[in-house]
Amino acid sequence: MTDDPVPRGDASRCSLTGRCLVATSRMRDPMLAGAVIYLCVHSEQGAMGVVINRILEGFSFLGLLRELHLPRPERDPEIPVHFGGPAERQQGFALHTADYVRDDTVVLNAAMAFTATREALRDIAHGTGPRRALVALGYTGWPPGQLDAEVRDDQWLVTDADPDLVFAPESDTKADLALARLGIDPARLSGEGGHA
């Protein structure tokens, strides 16, 4: 992939953009086993998404602000920092509601947007950012055709996504919430295959 984490193209025509991927027992990449990923872009140029169910233990939002040399807010915000994926792991990203739009924001749909700038993290810290946000370090990327092949190979289940799933307060329940939308009992996941 290029240095730009968001592949360009007409994201609105990509059927998986704005949906969630849930890793199945067939997932071959151990870093993504058990992952739920919000897919920000899926086009002929590749795909990019953010893992939404894995908090980085021992890493605080205040620590991230310090590393980025951003001013500390008056109140300590209790915002978890997520493992967004194996690419660009030193880069902070914000997946957020579409009520917050800057020049560098990618609006994904009427409910969701994505911003990968220090200013967005500063605004979140100081309460001037989006109504709801998920902060992550890193992202997950696929070259052209790879994600499609992984879905065909039943490494991922695909489900609809909305802010209630993406911003659910308990990250460790997001896989169960996503599976419930498909009518799948998590205990039977290993026996399920195919597309939503």
TrEMBL record:
Domain of life: Bacteria
Pfam family, one: DUF179
A cellular component annotation (GO) from this entry: cytosol
Family classification: Belongs to the UPF0301 (AlgH) family.
Protein name: UPF0301 protein SAMN05421720_104210
Record organism: Rhodospira trueperi
Species classification: Bacteria, Pseudomonadati, Pseudomonadota, Alphaproteobacteria, Rhodospirillales
